[in-house]
Design goal:
Two copies of one chain form a homodimer. By secondary structure, chain A is an alpha/beta fold. Chain A contains nine helices and ten strands. The radius of gyration of chain A is 20 Å and the shape is elongated. Chains A and B meet through helix 5, strand 5, helix 6, strand 6 and strand 9 of A and helix 5, strand 5, helix 6, strand 6 and strand 9 of B.
Chain lengths: 236, 236
């Protein structure tokens, strides 16, 4: 029997077969859970089917946690743990609660003394960092940078200077349809010798992870439009 | 046939059966590799056996990459990729190149235009962050903090202030035999309301991930001695 706890369940990064990049151990655990906190019930069911989940969905509870969920209703989502039942928190992509705002159920569990069990899965941030060649002993993840042009330039300058002063890899993401704009902004803002790694379509068949100086990126033709990407900056 | 590339291969975090927490996909890839860059050939062989690797070790090359390896010999380790062969870079614990200095082969591959393929595996930093309840949209990993008492206190104050000013989760590690000292230093240095998460023995049977205020930690008896732990600080 599975211990009562909140299980944090990673999913794939958008490929056809998430089971391929998830440990078999995860499927065994998920199989024993029939109550899930999810952002979208449809994609949650699709994921569960893809890893061979065999319970009848009529007997499964999906609590929807998205930006419309009133905060006051979230304690109810984890109340079964007190009764000795496991509850799963499913991410929409990658690992839950990283580059993702869905951490309120985790906060509540920690406050109430309920066990929280994170399962291993793909984090685009860590995969990108591993393959960048950049400093993995000191790094910062900033989420999304500002959209407004002036603010964006200021923020890029600020984190570029952290890369040099703190010897720290700087990691951030962008809404995929704005990726090309982000690349232009980086090229026009950073020093020519600063290193930029762009990690695109991680774990998919056309995965690409390239590290080049800003000077070199100026001469490369890439189209990042609508392709999920992680950007990393490091000093020369 | 596996594409010529440097494959970054995660291992377990110290448990008996790393295969449990690694994707089946990884084993399939590793099975096709017969040249590995490793820190320690003995533990590499032990890992490979544990996931069912079936090649004869007499036919397998292990390049040793540790602090005694002359930097000039590292290009040789990846030269087979140019000849169309895959090479694996094995970590000693968790994922390669994160909280780990072994990234020189990756830098060389990126410079030479060789493909680098990161495989999914357990990152203690990400697992701890997921289960802490802390901000996963903005976080910093600092590696090891200074050992000397005064320097350590100054560094703790500095990163605690980043947690508040930047709304950023602060993550760091300590040599396991100094963990209890680190906890004392945190308790005596941070504000009473600051939140501290300690994630210990991740993925093992006695995994423990607890988030409490510094005030609460003062009254809890824990022995972290020699237990691999990740420390996380966040504002109240």
């Amino acid at each position: 029997m599975l211990k009562p706890a909140l299980y944090l369940i990673p999913v794939g990064l958008g490929g056809g077969n998430p089971g391929e990049i998830l440990p078999g151990h995860n499927s065994k655990i998920i199989q024993e859970i029939d109550e899930f906190i999810v952002e979208n019930a449809r994609s949650a069911r699709r994921f569960l089917k893809s890893i061979g989940y065999s319970k009848n969905f009529d007997d499964v509870t999906f609590h929807i946690l998205d930006k419309h969920t009133p905060e006051g209703s979230i304690p109810e989502f984890i109340s079964s743990i007190k009764l000795g039942k496991p509850v799963g928190l499913l991410s929409e992509a990658g690992v839950p609660c990283v580059a993702d705002p869905g951490n309120i159920p985790v906060i509540l569990c920690q406050e109430k003394g309920f066990k929280v069990v994170p399962l291993v899965g793909p984090s685009s941030i860590i995969l990108a960092l591993m393959a960048s060649g950049f400093n993995g002993q000191n790094f910062s993840f900033h989420g999304y940078l500002p959209v407004e042009k002036g603010d964006l330039k200021r923020k890029i300058k600020e984190i570029e200077s952290l890369a040099y002063k703190q010897n720290q890899t700087q990691i951030f993401i962008e809404t995929p349809f704005r990726n090309n704009k982000m690349l232009s902004a980086l090229i026009s803002t950073c020093s020519a010798q600063t290193k930029l790694c762009i990690a695109t379509n991680l774990t998919l068949n056309d995965e690409s992870i390239l590290t080049k100086s800003i000077h070199e990126w100026k001469t490369v033709k890439v189209d990042l439009n609508k392709k999920p990407s992680v950007f990393l900056i490091y000093k020369n």
